[in-house]
Here is the input.
Amino acid sequence: MIILPALEQDFEWIKVIQSEAGLPLWKPSSASWVLERSAFVIWQVAGDECELLSIAVNAHERGKGYAKALMEHSHKELAKQGIKKFFLEVRENNTAAISLYKKFGYEKIAERKKYYADGECAVVMNLILN
Ligand SMILES: CC(C)(COP(=O)(O)OP(=O)(O)OC[C@H]1O[C@@H](n2cnc3c(N)ncnc32)[C@H](O)[C@@H]1OP(=O)(O)O)[C@@H](O)C(=O)NCCC(=O)NCCS
Here is the structure.
């Protein structure tokens, strides 16, 4: 699996995956990685914290460990930059994503009721590295 920093032009295929997955359209930031035009992760960094803005895998290539590889890689790279606090929010019914995040040690810290336009609640999770 080849993981590379995302380039501006990757947004062309990233936005297709985002819209097919019903996700908001986030452009790659300076802390974003892609895996073989099949999967991506986009973070927003602020000081020693960062927030996961978007992660998705092409629907035909899920279950192959791509998201796990991207999370591992980005945690390692972000930790090298001195980032210790990782935050994210996820739809409460997104069991695949919640299971992925828990594997990395993320814990639920809050709930946002009716956060999404369709009335679904958001779960806020974080991971603090020592
Ligand atoms: C969530 C998502 C990114 C997972 O990507 P993936 O490449 O299929 O995940 P992986 O193969 O790396 O699996 C890693 C872990 O995620 C969890 N997981 C993945 N798919 C799952 C499923 N269908 N059901 C339950 N858990 C699942 C498991 O814990 C898995 O670990 P395991 O293989 O040891 O059981 C993918 O399903 C996706 O793109 N979903 C649509 C977009 C989305 O919801 N993004 C998150 C919100 S921004």
Remarks:
- The domain at 3-128 is CATH 3.40.630.30 (Aminopeptidase).
